[in-house]
Write a structure and sequence with these properties.
Helix content is 39%, strand content 22%. The model has no long low-confidence stretch (mean pLDDT 97). The protein is built from 15 helices and 19 strands. The protein binds manganese (II) ion.
Length: 499
């Protein structure tokens, strides 16, 4: 369901020119190979790193970057200027490049060899000024890219590279992605709406609606064997203590899950939405099925929220192989006690068990909304640790992403009567400032919540997507945050004229 990141390729392209002669270019080539070997073998690097021969002319540069565009496994490009590569040669190629790229501003030799340094060394190790020439043309062309400066064996450099690769993988995954909406939006809700044509143009994914009866046709075809298989999986994976009536509800939930899986697999969807206001022909709101589909890597947004469904899918791709889970989330209720203000995050049902602390409990309880049968759901707490909440909105002339890191904390006491998965967090810098900034930014009530990825992943992703990025963290001051929003208003009105 989630692509294997190690099968996806990042191309390493080194720029130079002919001025230096063959001997120097051979050394440049050898050094590039060594860096690629190091990065590719590094267990902290998500993708395969592929060496490409050093480019020295405008034609070579253009050719390799066109090839990167059309290669299905290439998710992005790393560029490095070991020597000085006159950057007018890069104008055509960079103008055509459609994939994300990193400017790795590194030098092969970490240290200056004080005793032996001569002009040969100086002619070979020119990143310090070669990288500046390349940086200028990228900025002059207004190209979004990540700049990573430092020695290539530096752990921080490797980590930044990995973060960017994960963002580039998620971006790659969005291209051509299909999102299914069962029913439309929750009626009258604003923030979950948006321009789906603009999203497809900007993000590459398509969002299409299906009648709930289209899904019900799949649910009706589910066999008893499929249901039994799922119920066995439930009893193995979760704590299950249910009476006969509740067990009947679980079986009905298994039927819905199998039908949803068949529908999503047949249509090759990676994310979906539904709404409790439109469940015609379904006996219960799909709580457990949605939780389990999310755990398998599907993006999900409740109440028709397709932007959050896409976002959660992207966050799950970025989080692949990392510790900690990623879920759909909603800021539900506050604890405003001055001794420690926090947010209780939950949803009616649909929280992904990838964030659960231990085994989840499978339960069946009435739902006070929607007027359907009692739905099955997984109930659990979430372990302490660092997390982020992320939201995407359509601001009319642009998409905006807001990210807010938080600390997940234990509840002050058990909540025995709360029949849903729940997580408590303290947002950065603290609740009052975080909530004020979030509200001023127009941040949604739905978020993507993750304990696997960080604000750096989201910043890289927003940069690749070319959208507005607002961060609420330990450095946030409301007066500055307001100014940032105002400056951005002007920027996004003018930016289209720059490129
Ligand atoms: Mn909701």
């Amino acid at each position: 369901m989630i692509p294997e990141l190690k099968k996806l390729e990042v191309w390493f392209i080194t720029g130079s020119q002919h001025l230096y002669g063959d001997d120097t270019l051979k050394q440049v080539n050898a050094h590039s190979k060594e860096i690629v070997g190091y990065l590719d073998a590094n267990k902290n690097i998500a993708c395969k790193v592929i060496f490409k021969p050093v480019v020295t002319t405008s034609d070579e540069i253009t050719r390799i970057l066109i090839e990167a565009n059309t290669s299905t496994n290439c998710i992005g490009v790393i560029t490095w200027m070991h020597t000085f590569s006159p950057a007018k040669m890069w104008i055509t190629g960079l103008g055509m490049l459609q994939k994300p790229f990193v400017h790795l501003h590194t030098q092969f030799n970490r240290d200056i060899p004080w005793d032996s340094i001569d002009m040969d060394f100086m002619n070979l190790n020119q990143s310090a000024h070669g990288g500046r020439e390349f940086g200028f043309i990228c900025s002059r062309l207004r190209k979004n890219r990540k700049v990573i400066a430092g020695h290539w064996q530096d752990e921080d450099v490797v980590s930044k590279m990995d973060v960017w690769m994960r963002a580039a993988c998620a971006w790659h995954d969005w291209q051509g992605m299909k999102i299914a909406r069962f029913g439309d939006n929750m009626r009258e809700v604003a923030v979950t709406e948006g321009d789906k044509v603009e999203a497809q143009k900007k993000f590459g994914y398509s969002v299409n609606g299906y009648g709930v009866s289209d899904l019900v046709a799949f649910i009706d075809k589910v066999t008893d064997k499929q249901i039994d298989k799922l119920v066995t999986a439930y009893t193995n994976e979760y704590k299950v203590e249910l009476d006969a009536r509740q067990m009947a509800g679980v079986k009905e939930s298994a039927r819905i899950e199998a039908g949803m899986r068949d529908f999503l697999e047949e249509g090759n969807f990676k994310a979906f939405t539904n709404t409790f206001e439109d469940l015609h022909g379904m006996t219960q709101l799909p709580g457990l099925p949605t939780q389990r589909l999310m755990a398998d890597g599907y993006g999900f947004g409740a109440e028709g929220d397709w932007k959050t469904a896409a976002l959660i899918r992207a966050m799950k791709v970025m989080a692949s192989g990392l510790d900690g889970g990623t879920s759909f989330m909603e800021d539900y209720t506050y604890h405003l006690n001055p001794k420690g203000m926090k947010v209780l995050g939950a949803h009616m049902l649909e929280i992904c068990p990838s964030i659960a602390d231990g085994k989840a409990s499978l339960e069946v309880h009435p739902l006070g909304i929607g007027g359907k049968a009692d739905p099955a759901r997984l109930v659990f707490n979430v372990p302490q640790g660092k997390g982020i909440n992320v939201s995407m909105m359509d601001m009319g002339n642009r998409f905006r992403m807001v990210t807010n890191p938080c600390t997940v904390v234990p509840p002050d006491s058990d909540m025995p009567k709360l029949p849903v998965a729940r997580v408590l967090w303290q947002p950065m810098p603290e609740l009052k400032t975080a909530a004020t900034a979030w509200i001023l930014a127009g941040g949604a009530h739905h978020t993507g919540f993750s304990m696997a990825i960080t604000k750096e992943h989201m910043e890289d992703f927003a940069e690749i997507a070319g959208i507005e990025y607002l961060l609420i963290d330990e450095d946030t001051k409301i007066s500055d945050f307001k100014k940032d929003i105002q400056v951005n208003e002007i920027y996004y009105l003018l930016a289209k004229g720059l490129v």
